């Protein structure tokens, strides 16, 4: 009888505790949120509803945005405001940008991977990196180097696709490998060779980099990730292991590049982003240390790798769905790059793709722009904790 009473008591206490915790959570979500106040955006549920639509979240948010251009999702302690109104976006991202920080929550989630890179910082560090990046990317040396890298890897991509003729293959995976090779060469001045699969260390880095991004993103929906990080278990243990692979690989590259710069043995050593930033670090070696350089370069890699690869994937998907547009684009490329009376090799054709030629391809530019409109590569911009802008 005593055991039976103990079991019943345990169940009752557990049930009451659950009800109490749930009630407190509801109070924290709905209290003080001005739900009926017309001066605030309308409420479209709580942040927990996003879990239901997690696998098609952007489609769901787009559907809601057709009803309300600006709306709120309630969360414990705050509200999240989503907006597609151009006036609000301009207010947050342009005219009043300094007033909107990324917020401590976002920074806490991404700092382990992104460190103090441009996507994880505010204020002076953000301005410093933005100013330096803006200057460096406008220099002719870096632009010419980037173009030569993109041409070279485009040639390799053509070769890889030609070798798969008649077979089913994952085009997005090829784009991911090709863009990572390109961004890595432009960023570090090093051949990663992911597309050809000949660099084991590079392949390990790529795998760790992709997994770290996914695990970091998972923190946004994992309420106990900080506890898991404290005990180094589960996804957090995997993230820690992957970040160590990234750090070891990147730190060795920085060390090697510093040695090359010191010895001045490589005539092309100052073309890549890392070399340009290393030269800048000589002005302030305490702040621009190896850890800070690692953070800066990884942030640029994240900005360039997945964004380019995903846009290319959607672009070719749309071309396959619209063969007439595909032919118009192909004809425009032939008009401005190749002479139909001359038989070009792939190398010759790629060498003829100049900035001047690209500037004349208005139809290609329009098709790429339409692809970005339909499938935005950065569908959500989150400048701070309680306001999220949907682009």
UniProtKB/TrEMBL annotation:
<comment type="similarity">
    <text>Belongs to the cytochrome P450 family.</text>
</comment>
<keyword id="KW-0408">Iron</keyword>
<keyword id="KW-0479">Metal-binding</keyword>
<keyword id="KW-0472">Membrane</keyword>
<keyword id="KW-0560">Oxidoreductase</keyword>
<dbReference type="InterPro" id="IPR036396">
    <property type="entry name" value="Cyt_P450_sf"/>
</dbReference>
<dbReference type="Pfam" id="PF00067">
    <property type="entry name" value="p450"/>
</dbReference>
<feature type="transmembrane region" description="Helical">
    <location>
        <begin position="6"/>
        <end position="27"/>
    </location>
</feature>
<dbReference type="GO" id="GO:0005506">
    <property type="term" value="F:iron ion binding"/>
</dbReference>
<dbReference type="InterPro" id="IPR002401">
    <property type="entry name" value="Cyt_P450_E_grp-I"/>
</dbReference>
<dbReference type="GO" id="GO:0004497">
    <property type="term" value="F:monooxygenase activity"/>
</dbReference>
<keyword id="KW-0503">Monooxygenase</keyword>
<keyword id="KW-0812">Transmembrane</keyword>
<dbReference type="GO" id="GO:0016705">
    <property type="term" value="F:oxidoreductase activity, acting on paired donors, with incorporation or reduction of molecular oxygen"/>
</dbReference>
<dbReference type="GO" id="GO:0020037">
    <property type="term" value="F:heme binding"/>
</dbReference>
<dbReference type="InterPro" id="IPR001128">
    <property type="entry name" value="Cyt_P450"/>
</dbReference>
<keyword id="KW-0349">Heme</keyword>
<protein>
    <recommendedName>
        <fullName>Cytochrome P450</fullName>
    </recommendedName>
</protein>
<keyword id="KW-1133">Transmembrane helix</keyword>
């Amino acid at each position: 009888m005593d055991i039976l009473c103990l079991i019943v008591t345990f169940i009752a206490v557990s049930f009451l505790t659950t009800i109490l915790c749930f009630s407190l959570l509801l109070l924290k979500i709905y209290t003080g949120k001005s739900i009926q106040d017309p001066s605030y955006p309308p409420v479209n549920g709580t942040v927990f509803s996003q879990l239901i639509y997690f696998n098609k979240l952007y489609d769901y948010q787009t559907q809601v945005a057709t009803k309300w251009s600006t709306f709120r999702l309630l969360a414990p302690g705050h509200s999240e405001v989503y907006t597609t109104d151009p006036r609000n976006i301009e207010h947050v991202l342009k005219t009043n940008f300094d007033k909107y920080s990324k917020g401590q929550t976002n920074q806490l989630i991404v700092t382990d991977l992104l460190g103090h890179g441009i996507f994880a910082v505010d204020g002076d560090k953000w301005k410093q990196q933005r100013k330096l990046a803006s200057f460096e990317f406008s220099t002719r040396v870096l632009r010419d180097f980037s173009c030569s890298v993109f041409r070279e890897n485009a040639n390799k991509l053509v070769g890889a696709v030609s070798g798969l003729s008649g077979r089913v293959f994952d085009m997005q995976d090829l784009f991911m490998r090709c863009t990572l090779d390109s961004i890595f060469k432009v960023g570090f001045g090093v051949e990663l060779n992911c597309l050809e699969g000949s660099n084991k260390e590079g392949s390990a880095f790529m795998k760790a980099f992709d997994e770290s991004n996914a695990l970091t993103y998972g923190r946004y929906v994992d309420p106990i990730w900080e506890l898991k990080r404290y005990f180094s278990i589960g996804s957090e243990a995997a993230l820690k292991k992957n970040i160590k692979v990234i750090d070891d690989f990147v730190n060795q590259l920085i060390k090697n590049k510093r040695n090359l710069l010191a010895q001045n043995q490589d005539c092309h050593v100052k073309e890549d982003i890392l070399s340009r930033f290393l030269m800048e670090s000589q002005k302030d070696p305490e702040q621009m240390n190896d850890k800070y350089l690692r953070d800066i370069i990884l942030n640029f890699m994240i900005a360039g790798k997945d964004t380019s690869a995903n846009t290319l994937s959607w672009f070719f998907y749309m071309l396959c769905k619209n063969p007439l547009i595909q032919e118009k684009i192909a004809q425009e490329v032939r008009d401005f790059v190749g002479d139909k009376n001359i038989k070009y090799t792939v190398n010759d054709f790629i060498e003829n793709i100049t900035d001047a030629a690209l500037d004349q391809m208005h139809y290609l530019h329009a098709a790429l722009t339409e692809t970005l409109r339909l499938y935005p590569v950065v569908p959500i911009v989150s400048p701070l904790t309680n306001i999220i802008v949907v682009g």
